[in-house]
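Changelog-adjacent note: as of this version, every example in the card shows the full chain rather than a window. The one below runs 280 residues end to end.
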Amino acid sequence: MRHPSHSISGLLLAWAMFALPGVALAQSVVQTELPAAPALPAVAVGTAADAAAARNSTAVEDPNAIRVLLSPELETLLAAQIVGRISLLDAGLGQRVRAGQTLVRFDCSETQARLKMAQAESSAARETLKVKSDLLKLDAAGDTEVALARAEAQRAAASIDVARAQLAQCEIKAPFAGRVVRLHAKPHQSVNVGAPLLELVSEGPLKLRLNVPSRMLRTLRAGSPVEVDIMETGQTYAAEVTAINARVDAIAQTIELEARLKDAPPELLPGMSGIARIAP
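Full-length structure tokens:
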């Protein structure tokens, strides 16, 4: 004999299917198994950066591969030597400059007036000394007066030198031929003494700075060949060791080297990095 609960459950299910056909239809749809989607073939996705990273990781695993940084032969930061307002700034980012070219000029009208005043005082002091010297010959002046007049003439001449030195600081010239890599000031800007104005790097063959294991000192010499793979250009360049530091880093057991590229390819810029290999 069937249990009463089974009968009641059957009646309820039948009533739900008759009153709510959408529910039954949804249940049947849910219970229907969909066909499995076909598997897509795996596609390898890669970029040039990934390839470069793979090459770099392989290079780092090489015991003879060493990280290097390109540096210019000369670099400097030009700063203001006087307090004043910039009247000329003949420099732009990346601009090439020649040695002795005027890059910055200050408004130094006051210094020029001071120079003219010192020149006038020097002229008067020389005339006074001449008169005192003539009076000394006539016994109309003493040696002390002549000595004081001579000292005054010398002081006036020194004032001229000071004014000329200050006037020379009104112009900042390029100490060497190179390129502008950074600007810190703008035209018509007022600056104080020591304020940075611009940064220069020299042109020509670049230097390599690298630290190698100190055990390589057994074979390293000035002139040892070096091959450099620059990451930014993806090319290999020839260089040679030019300097070896006189002290070994006792903690890292490394020694600093400098190498120089044999040529000056135009595509290379200071700050680029790469991998160097020194022949054992």
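Structural remarks: Confidence is low (pLDDT under 50) at residues 1-8, 11-49, 51-60.
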